[in-house]
Design a protein that fits this description.
Elements lengths: L15 H33 L8 H19 L13 H33 L7 H24 L10 H26 L3 H6 L3 H8 L2 H15 L8
């Protein structure tokens, strides 16, 4: 049976020159997204001076989890600018599992340091937008990991949905989790600690930088999974 919705190749209808320019721009954007995620992780880790307090490990763990591991775990599926482009689909999936497992480990560790720091200083929990968003992000990450397990063992769990549909659900939920994580990271820039550490133009740069990898990830997932115009012969 012919599907009502078909998928059109990215860049269809472009001339040869425009097509290669489009490919070059996409590749450059993906490479810059890699650099932005890794750069944010490195700079935040240096600014937090890990080891000086219990709290100092919280930004380190969370930036490793979401700015680096989650970003790399999604971008490795990109056909443009991914260092793992030589890997097979099965190899990329395994690397994706590994990255997402690191996300959970680093995020839970970061949460533990935050809770311990609050308890030692006798300060209340969940009183800021950042803490509330962070809790929602971590809960969504756990749920998304559970969805990933369903992707691995669909027959064992006796799921009624077809594998392509499960992939679409997983990718869509993953995009939502990543965007939620991006908002949470941006909200951290309004914390007393960060505003006391970074000021002026640099603060605005840090506030806007997480948006770039988010846009690249959103473009990658929507181009790969969401339906385009219906093609006619």
């Amino acid at each position: 049976m012919r599907s009502d919705v078909e998928y059109s190749p990215v860049g269809e209808g472009l001339g040869m020159r425009d097509f290669w320019l489009y490919v070059w721009l996409r590749r450059t954007a993906v490479i810059m997204a890699h650099g932005t995620g890794l750069g944010l992780t490195l700079v935040i880790s240096l600014l937090s001076r890990p080891g000086t307090s219990l709290f100092s490990w919280h930004p380190v763990c969370m930036s490793v989890a979401y700015c680096m591991c989650m970003t790399e775990g999604i971008l490795l599926f990109s056909a443009e600018g991914s260092p793992f482009c030589f890997k097979s689909r099965k190899g990329k999936v395994r690397l994706h599992w590994f990255c997402q497992a690191l996300v959970l480990i680093a995020a839970v560790t970061g949460l533990g340091f935050m809770v311990a720091s609050k308890n030692v200083s006798e300060r209340p929990h969940l009183v800021s937008w950042h803490s509330l968003l962070g809790t929602c992000t971590l809960a969504a990450t756990v749920l998304q990991a559970a969805c990933g397990i369903c992707m691995i063992f669909p027959k064992l769990l006796r799921l009624s949905s077809s594998p392509p549909r499960l992939k679409l659900y997983h990718a869509t939920c993953g995009l939502v989790v990543y965007l939620l994580a991006t908002v949470t990271v941006m909200s951290a820039m309004f914390s007393d600690w960060f505003q006391a550490t970074v000021k002026g133009v640099a603060w605005w740069a840090f506030l806007l930088l997480p948006l770039f990898p988010a846009l690249v990830v959103m473009n990658q997932i929507t181009n790969a999974y969401l339906p385009r115009k219906k093609m006619t012969s």
